[in-house]
């Protein structure tokens, strides 16, 4: 079915992203996996193309698209390459950027945003902690006032871009007695004394992503590094989480759709018992089901993108999008592995890597169980 939410400008932008990926990324994407990181050359090249500044005002080096559909196009094209690329770029350009644009003052914007748009400053967000997981209201990292400064102590884990980041937006408890209402956000320069990297995490999938543990031992930051009003960090995280979850949903569908398209081609090319394996009724019906499932999900997700473009996407609908698309993605790609037979279990086949890459999408950005809890609460339970 023809998609109707994108206009000529969006498709022209899509073409430019695809051309960039074909030229700069796909020829060396295997090297990214071997190095367990996306090189700075990629970030600088992406910044030069204007891909990192869609949320950033022009006066600070961005393009300030003002239309979330451009973000969605960028995410879709990145996800077609692999989930790690979509995740890393999404964290920087689509998830952290709004914090730096909407919650900062003029001095902070001048200090951070030009380098952020150019790729010279790579961003990450420090929410998740080893003992907390999805329960952000109970994080343990603290920031204690010392004169005009703050001293941060604690740790974060599962941080995308964590090993390469120059700037981490860190959630820390500034008023423990206030619980969720006592959390603040700080922009922490990773060159600060007391900041240290733990191990680069050895994940089941997405080896291209440099996911890391971060440690803060008496890291001293100034009041000028406080992002947004004091003790409003939890509210800010809740405000921006819907866009993060929508970003995840867009990547989920685009990734699964791409792997399914490649599997359809494989089902045409692969012969068994004198015919293409797609001609066997079971396989034909299975593929028909998966194609329909993806197209129906994509049509609904497009409406979520339109709603967010108009500022009308609710937190509950974002939770539905994140939960449903991750579930669909895992189901579809699992069937794609099965259709590849033994080859689907071989690392040399992209479908095997995609299968592993997809599994975490039911966990990150709030587990699917948490998403269902949010949806249930909205229903009055």
Spell out the blueprint of helices and strands.
Blueprint: H1 8-25, H2 29-35, H3 40-48, H4 68-81, H5 83-102, H6 106-118, E1 123-126, E2 142-146, E3 149-159, E4 167-173, E5 183-189, E6 195-200, E7 212-222, E8 226-227, H7 233-269, E9 271-272, E10 275-276, H8 281-309, H9 315-339, H10 350-359, H11 368-378
Parallel strand pairs: 1-4
Antiparallel strand pairs: 2-3, 3-7, 4-5, 5-8, 6-7, 9-10
Helix pairs in contact: 1-4, 4-5, 4-7, 5-6, 5-7, 7-8, 7-9, 7-10, 8-9, 9-10, 9-11
Summarize the helix and strand pattern as letters. HHHHHHEEEEEEEEHEEHHHH
Q: Which sequence of strands runs across the widest sheet? A: 1-4-5-8
Give start-end ranges of low-pLDDT stretches.
none
Distance between the termini: 37 Å
**What's the number of extended β-strand segments?**
10
- Note the total helix count: 11
Shape: globular
Computed structural class: alpha+beta
Detailed description of the structure:
The chain starts with 7 loop residues before the first helix and ends with a helix. It has helices at residues 8-25, 29-35, 40-48, 68-81, 83-102, 106-118, 233-269, 281-309, 315-339, 350-359, 368-378, and strands spanning 123-126, 142-146, 149-159, 167-173, 183-189, 195-200, 212-222, 226-227, 271-272, 275-276. The chain has a 4-stranded mixed beta sheet, covered by helices on one side. It has a 4-stranded antiparallel beta sheet with strand order 2-3-7-6, with no helix packed on it. 44% of the residues are buried. It is α+β, with helices and mostly antiparallel strands and 381 residues long.
